[in-house]
Each structure stands twice: as C-alpha cells, then as structure tokens.
Fold:
Amino acid sequence: MKNIKTTKNVLITGASSGFGYAIAEILTSKGWVATNLGRNPSTVCDENILIDLSELDLLDAKIKELPLSEINKFDLLILNAGTLGEIKHISFLAQESVMEVMRVNVFSNKIILDNFLGNIKRSNL
Structure:
C-alpha cells in the first residue's frame, strides 16, 4: 500500500516580514506547515531556521547539518528573501555593496537549491 501524505510542507526564505510573511500566512491558513529560513523568526511559521543568508559558508554548513528527513519533507521551496541595496548608478556603488546584494539575492539561493535538490536526488537512488 502506498503511503499517502496529507500535510504539505513549504520552506520560505525571508518569511518574517513582507511578501514572505504574507505567503506563509496564506499557506498556513490552508493547512500547510511552513518553515522560515532567514535572519529573523517568523511568527506565522511553524519552524524557524535562523541564519543570515549573506553568510554563505554558514548557510551551507547549517543546511548540511539538517537531517535528510528534514530536507526531504518539503513539497515546495519559495526563495523569497532578498535585499535591495543602495539605489545608485552602478559606477557609484562600492564593490562590497554590490557583493552583499549578490550574496543574498543570487548565491544564497544557489546554495539552498544545490543542497536541497542534491539531497532529494541522492535519497531517490
């Protein structure tokens, strides 16, 4: 007999405020179990994994600490967290300012996807 999963689990980055919070609020009201991955705890999520997404080495290590069962429970990943950074012509921006935006908006998502999708593939072998 096939095991039928009735609860849906979602991982949302940056679910402590703004758009991420709104998504978590809607999904949890519909019965989803939500996990927030970000700097600040979310009051609407069932679980919080607290990490600054700009700290790429720490983010990678934190995800690798999660048991495979924790990673494989998610039916949906919503990579919502982001930072706007300074609004200036790029020639006036310091390199570190641009790198901070790229770490949060691009590289952290790459780390999350590599870890989650890589573990899903390994568990299905």
In short: The helical segments are 18-29, 56-65, 68-72, 95-123. The radius of gyration is 16 Å. The beta strands are 9-13, 33-38, 47-50, 76-78. The mean pLDDT is 90.
